[in-house]
Q: What sequence folds into this?
């Protein structure tokens, strides 16, 4: 049985035409029913013939993840531990900015990247998430928002949850195309961000997709020496290879990247580190998103003090780098990526 949420519209058209002898427009009808009208019962799809609705009921489903655990922060942030059909548990988060409601979506069950400061790596990857399981995370968050107000919806997406998106490339790209399609979620490309820890082949491939969707790179260090200590992927893709891929992306896609940089006390947060970072990214269009660290009790890394964070920002600015400090959410719940799932599995 097919989960209908697994298909971007082009794949659905191909399936319906070749396997079910339907017209291409049938895919558009289905997209409008399941995404625009959020219908989950095939019998309600009134412009589809009764006979084909029976086929749909037999061969397709509209299953979504279920909420296994829910945490709500005092700032309104919602963190969910969702259960997939096979029992796998996956985190997703809703953050509320003044410009909209942002869903942070996971792309894998577990993560193999092994970043030393991240709770996601406590549990190794067991499988990729299907496109439908990523779509399902957004649908569940949308449902919660609509319970608050029928006019509320998820307006922005960051694929920055558990997992490495470019390690699940095809499913993630189908997901973002469903998000962006006018008959899908109709979320603007500039409101969608995919984040990678630096898989060079993925960055180069992504550059050729013709997408206006944002690309973020988890950098977290100004040089190979520091990056090798905290991000094993750096040993496979040293900084010079990564920066070459960034410049290739900017040239091919005509888009700039965001460098994500978590500040870790005494490791990567000095003024000298900031100057080195500015030198590293010189010649690119990139800007830097500085992230205060959410400490994890099982790990040794500590949060940089407020003065160091602002000194780092000021140093980058004086060096001509555009940088911001990311607003914090959910500090009174299991906010760190992978933390809630790891805690649950440990129990």
A:
């Amino acid at each position: 049985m097919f989960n209908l949420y697994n298909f971007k519209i082009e794949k659905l058209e191909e399936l319906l035409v070749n396997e079910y002898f339907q017209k291409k427009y049938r895919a558009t009808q289905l997209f409008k029913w399941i995404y625009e009208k959020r219908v989950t019962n095939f019998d309600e799809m009134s412009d589809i013939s009764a006979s084909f609705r029976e086929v749909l009921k037999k061969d397709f489903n509209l299953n979504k993840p279920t909420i296994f655990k829910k945490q709500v922060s005092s700032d309104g942030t919602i963190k969910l531990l969702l259960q997939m059909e096979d029992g796998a548990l996956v985190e997703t988060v809703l953050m509320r900015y003044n410009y909209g409601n942002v869903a942070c979506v996971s792309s894998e069950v577990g993560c193999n990247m092994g970043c030393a400061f991240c709770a996601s790596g406590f549990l190794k990857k067991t499988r990729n998430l299907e496109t439908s399981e990523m779509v399902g995370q957004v649908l569940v968050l949308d449902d919660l928002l609509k319970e608050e107000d029928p006019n509320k919806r998820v307006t922005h997406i960051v694929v920055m949850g558990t997992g490495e998106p470019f390690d699940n490339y095809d499913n993630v790209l189908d997901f973002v195309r469903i998000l962006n399609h006018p008959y899908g979620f109709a979320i603007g490309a500039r409101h969608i961000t995919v984040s990678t820890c630096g898989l060079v082949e993925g960055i180069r491939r992504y550059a050729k997709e013709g997408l206006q969707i944002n690309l973020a790179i988890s950098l977290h260090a100004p040089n190979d020496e520091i990056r090798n200590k905290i991000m094993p992927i750096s040993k496979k893709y040293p900084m010079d290879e990564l920066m070459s891929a960034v410049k290739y992306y900017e040239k091919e896609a005509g888009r700039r990247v965001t460098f994500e940089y978590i500040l870790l006390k005494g490791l990567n947060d000095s003024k000298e580190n900031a100057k080195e970072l500015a030198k590293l990214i010189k010649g690119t269009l990139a800007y830097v998103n500085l992230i205060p660290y959410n400490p994890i009790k099982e790990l040794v890394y500590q949060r940089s003090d407020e003065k160091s964070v602002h000194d780092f920002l000021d140093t980058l600015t004086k060096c001509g780098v555009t940088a911001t400090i990311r607003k914090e959410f959910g500090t009174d719940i299991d906010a760190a990526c992978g933390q809630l799932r790891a805690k649950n599995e440990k129990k």
